[in-house]
Specification:
Layout lengths: L4 H8 L5 E5 L3 H12 L17 E6 H6 L2 H14 L5 E8 L1 H10 L4 E4 L6 H17 L3 E6 L11 H6 L4 H11 L3 E4 L18 H10 L5 E3 L7 H9 L15 H6 L2 E6 L1 H17 L7 H22 L5 H11 L1
Parallel strand pairs: 1-2, 1-8, 2-3, 3-4, 4-5, 5-6, 6-7, 7-8
Helix pairs in contact: 2-4, 2-13, 5-6, 8-9, 10-12, 12-13
Bound molecules: glyceraldehyde-3-phosphate, 1,3-dihydroxyacetonephosphate and zinc ion.
Length: 330
């Protein structure tokens, strides 16, 4: 069942974070549905209520143009039929104004992100407001962004480092003036596999300050992959070359969720699982050329990985509670 991110956030806020996972192809989508239902080996496994979770499927502009956006829509529609017990939102990741309108009009996306965070404040407000008006007319939720994600270097002075982070007072004004449903905030993370230096982690002081000014309002963490050491080691042991990677410490997800970080965006980690599986298959069986061999292993490993993320986010085991709240409302 496709629902809005807003509906998912109402249940999750302050208790757990909903995992938002990017997809680009069939195998990722199958692994994603299986993992969120606790079906690790096959589509026909029984759903495991102890780990089953609500989730968000994210489609970036890059994913939409990788093959053809209609393939992704068809894959998701088919997955919805094969896994009727799943509850999820379909979300445009990092949209421009034009692509947001396209997704809103399509009637397929239940949520869009307008990312005008690179514009100056007034322009970001104006663009976001226009998207919110169009989206809300169609019952679509809107995520917006304020602040600049980026590598925060350990040796940068505190003030300079904080200059990139979301300003809590501006966040209040931005939310009030735009009417957005959730806000992506810069809290120390960056996209990709190289986020922090040394012992850096999330800026909890900043998350707390934003939450105090916007109590009850869902915040979104971009660049949230944890870049697990064991995955990077597997990749490097199988011929990869990913030096000095680092991600969000896994133990920081749940404390952030308790402070209102209700959506956690994970893309890079999924790519690392893909990379490890494929490198190992071809290293261990050089005679192999059947794409289904790594494909099957990837779907199983990705499913298990998704379940492990949901446990860290606290969303594992919440699916039936979400279904019950949705049923009460209808
Ligand atoms: O935030 C960016 C996401 O990781 C999507 O990446 O644009 O390469 O699909 P992509
Ligand atoms: P990662 O690169 O940390 O997976 O972040 C993904 C993301 O923010 C997608 O919008
Ligand atoms: Zn992002």
């Amino acid at each position: 069942m496709i629902v809005t991110t807003r509906e998912l956030f109402e249940h999750a806020y302050g208790k757990y974070a909903v995992g938002a996972y990017n997809i680009n192809n069939l195998e990722q989508t199958v692994g994603l549905f299986r993992g969120n239902l606790g079906k690790h080996q096959s589509n026909n496994d029984a759903t495991d209520p102890a780990v089953a979770a609500p989730f968000i499927i994210q489609i970036s502009r890059g994913a939409r143009s990788y093959t053809d956006k209609r393939f992704l829509e068809a894959i998701i529609r088919t997955a919805e039929e094969i896994f009727p017990e799943a509850i999820f939102a379909v979300h445009l990741d990092h949209g421009t104004e034009e692509v947001c309108y396209e997704c809103i009009e399509s009637g397929f996306y239940s949520s869009v992100m307008i990312d005008a965070s690179h514009e100056e404040f007034e322009k970001n407000v104006a663009i976001t407001r226009r998207v919110v008006e169009r989206a809300h007319e169609r019952g679509v939720s809107v995520e917006a962004e304020l602040g600049m994600l980026g590598g925060v270097e350990e040796d940068i002075q505190v003030d300079a480092a904080h200059a990139c982070l979301t300003d809590p007072d501006q966040a209040v004004e931005f939310v009030q003036r735009t009417g957005c449903d959730s806000l992506a905030v810069a809290i120390g993370t960056s996209h990709g596999a190289y986020k922090f230096k040394g012992k850096q982690g999330l800026h909890f002081d900043r998350i707390r300050a934003i939450q105090q000014r916007l109590p009850g309002f869902p915040l979104v963490m971009h660049g949230a992959s944890s870049v697990p050491r064991w995955l990077v080691d597997r990749i490097n042991a199988a011929g990869g070359n990913l030096p000095d990677t680092s991600g969000v410490p896994e133990q920081e997800y749940l404390p952030a969720a308790r402070l209102g970080v209700t959506k956690v965006n994970i893309d890079t980690d999924g790519r690392l699982v893909w990379c490890a599986v494929h490198r190992e298959v071809f290293r261990d069986a050089p005679e192999e050329f059947d794409l289904r061999t790594p494909g099957k292993r990837f779907m199983a490993e990705y499913a298990a990985f998704i379940t492990s993320r949901n446990k860290l986010l606290g969303s594992a085991g919440q699916l039936e509670a979400v279904r019950a709240t949705l049923a009460v409302r209808t």
